[in-house]
């Protein structure tokens, strides 16, 4: 279902393009806890459900209200919750505990003993509630898990007793001597808590892996992959745990079975998230994941959604900002097939999301290996990309234009590229990109617009070594626009990277067409050293006095 698939992509695309300079890095799937990214009032409302029981919990010490244990279980967690819901509840509780422990350390530093004690009691309650809640939906905990639970509860009780003694004395010397013990106990509580959470998440990852590996049911496998994807959205640490427990191996096994074809998009989306960490990348290499992705991309019987998700995995594993891609030796062996398939996907894309993922993968590959630019030239990729930019339904955001201009900038180092640009009316497109502005004011979109402006100027500077391109740029009034970007900070959103690129392009065009500049522009923007012109332009801020 294309609408479901598009909806699944919406949040990932919004989060992906966070404002990093694409010449250095490409946006990728999430590595942050989404809990921190929601509206503060909404977060407070969600946390309130977990925090309002604290006072009664202090008295009851997590003892059941009813005699029957099963009734207590029904009271704590509704039976409608799925495993995924329960894990989300556990992670929220863990996030609250982690936050409280940090705040306790801060209050302890300031010797606010009353606050330290009340917060310690609250942590004690949350720890007990978290353990009870987890045990209600997981009745197969290991002996090691129970040992850690007991250690943590005992240490929390000890911590509470320590802080209670502290508020009962006013002797500064005694408090000073007790402070080191409290600090030590806090550190131990945090350590036990971290180990318990690590153990819980590892066990849950193992359970999901077992379901994926042993089940022949599409429904059960789909549910397990969905839960696994939810876990990957909680951050890089969880992705590492999943990778270490064989998540990449299990998911590629799914991608090699025809009976699970309907699950390929979801499976590949989860793989892209896991491969944001080094452990995921190493596992991908071990199971010949690149070859599998190449097979999927070149198989015309797969759906567009499957191809797009495979492109997303390629974009992830070739991201320039990752430092651990050098071991992808098998990628070079399959690069021509992959690039060919991605160009075709760009050409046939039915939506902006599909084009974005395919073009992002191509943009990354042009950084990954210079041979990719030569392959793209042979495939007439520049003509295809320039044509796509004229379709506002396909290249419909600054993010997509960012990918296109990145590819053009990297291809512009080739001498043959100039004629392709002229034939495809590419200079006109680059000129339009110099006017790229955000319509929403969203910070991620503004950053994407800056990257578009910067890379279009870089591309112009590189291509203008060809007299024909330089002449076309002058006729399209590129020089006045570059001067405006240099002299007006608001036009470039105060971006230094845009300024440097525009100064470089202006100097290249001035050599080819010196008559296009007024003397003052020449004296300030072209004649001095680049650093002097840069300093001059950065001091042209408007005065509001």
From TrEMBL:
Gene3D superfamilies, alphabetized: Inscuteable LGN-binding domain (6.20.200.10), Leucine-rich Repeat Variant (1.25.10.10)
Location of the Protein inscuteable homologue LGN-binding domain: 36-80
Transmembrane segments: none
Protein name as it appears in the record: INSC protein
InterPro entries attached to this UniProt entry: ARM-like, ARM-type_fold, Armadillo, Insc_C, INSC_LBD, INSC_LBD_sf, Inscuteable
One biological process term in Gene Ontology: asymmetric cell division
Species for this entry: Pygoscelis papua
Residue ranges of domain Protein inscuteable homologue C-terminal in the record: 93-545
Top-rank lineage group of the source organism: Eukaryota
SMART domains: ARM (SM00185)
A GO-annotated cellular component: apical cortex
Any GO MF annotation of the entry: cytoskeletal anchor activity
């Amino acid at each position: 279902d294309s609408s479901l698939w598009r909806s699944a992509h919406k949040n990932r695309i919004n989060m992906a393009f966070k404002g990093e300079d694409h010449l250095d890095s490409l946006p990728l799937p999430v590595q942050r806890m989404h809990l921190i990214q929601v509206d503060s009032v909404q977060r407070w409302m969600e946390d309130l459900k977990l925090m309002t029981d604290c006072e009664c919990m202090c008295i009851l010490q997590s003892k059941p209200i009813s005699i029957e244990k099963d009734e207590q279980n029904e009271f704590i967690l509704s039976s409608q919750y799925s495993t995924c819901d329960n894990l989300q509840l556990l992670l929220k509780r863990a996030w609250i505990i982690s936050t409280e422990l940090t705040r306790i350390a801060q209050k302890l530093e300031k010797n606010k003993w009353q606050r330290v004690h009340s917060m310690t009691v609250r942590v004690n309650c949350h720890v007990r509630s978290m353990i009870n809640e987890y045990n209600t939906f997981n009745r197969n905990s290991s002996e090691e898990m129970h040992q850690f639970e007991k250690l943590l509860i005992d240490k929390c009780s000890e911590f509470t007793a320590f802080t209670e003694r502290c508020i009962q004395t006013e002797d500064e010397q005694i408090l000073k001597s007790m402070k080191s013990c409290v600090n030590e106990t806090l550190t131990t509580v945090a350590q036990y808590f971290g180990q318990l959470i690590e153990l819980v998440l590892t066990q849950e990852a193992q359970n999901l892996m077992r379901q994926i590996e042993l089940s022949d049911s599409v429904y059960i496998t789909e549910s397990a992959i969905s839960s696994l994807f939810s876990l990957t959205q909680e951050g890089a640490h969880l992705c590492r745990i999943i990778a270490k427990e064989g998540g990449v191996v299990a998911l590629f096994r799914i991608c090699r079975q025809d009976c699970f074809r309907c699950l390929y998009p979801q499976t590949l989306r989860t793989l892209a998230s896991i491969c944001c960490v080094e452990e995921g990348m190493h596992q991908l290499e071990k199971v010949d994941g690149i070859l599998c992705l190449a097979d999927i991309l070149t198989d015309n019987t797969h759906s567009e959604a499957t191809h797009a998700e495979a492109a997303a995995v390629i974009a992830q594993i070739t991201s320039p900002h990752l430092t651990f891609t050098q071991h992808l030796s098998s990628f070079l062996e399959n690069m021509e097939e992959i690039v060919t398939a991605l160009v075709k996907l760009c050409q046939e894309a039915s939506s902006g999301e599909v084009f974005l993922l395919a073009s992002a993968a191509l943009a990354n590959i042009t950084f990954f290996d210079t041979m990719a630019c030569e392959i793209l030239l042979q495939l007439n990729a520049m003509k295809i990309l320039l044509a796509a930019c004229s379709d506002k339904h396909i290249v419909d955001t600054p993010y997509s234009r960012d990918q296109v201009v990145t590819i053009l900038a990297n291809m512009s180092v080739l001498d043959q590229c100039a004629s392709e640009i002229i034939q495809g009316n590419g200079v006109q497109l680059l000129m339009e990109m110099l006017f790229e502005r955000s319509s929403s004011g969203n910070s991620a979109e503004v950053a994407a617009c800056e990257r578009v402006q910067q890379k279009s100027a870089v591309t112009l500077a590189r291509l203008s070594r060809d007299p024909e391109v330089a002449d076309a740029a002058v006729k399209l009034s590129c020089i006045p626009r570059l001067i405006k970007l240099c002299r007006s900070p608001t036009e470039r959103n105060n971006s230094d990277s845009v300024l440097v690129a525009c100064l470089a392009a202006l100097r290249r065009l001035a050599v080819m067409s010196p008559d296009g500049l007024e003397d003052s522009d020449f004296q300030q923007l072209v004649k001095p050293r680049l650093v002097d012109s840069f300093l001059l332009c950065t001091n042209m801020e408007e005065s509001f006095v």
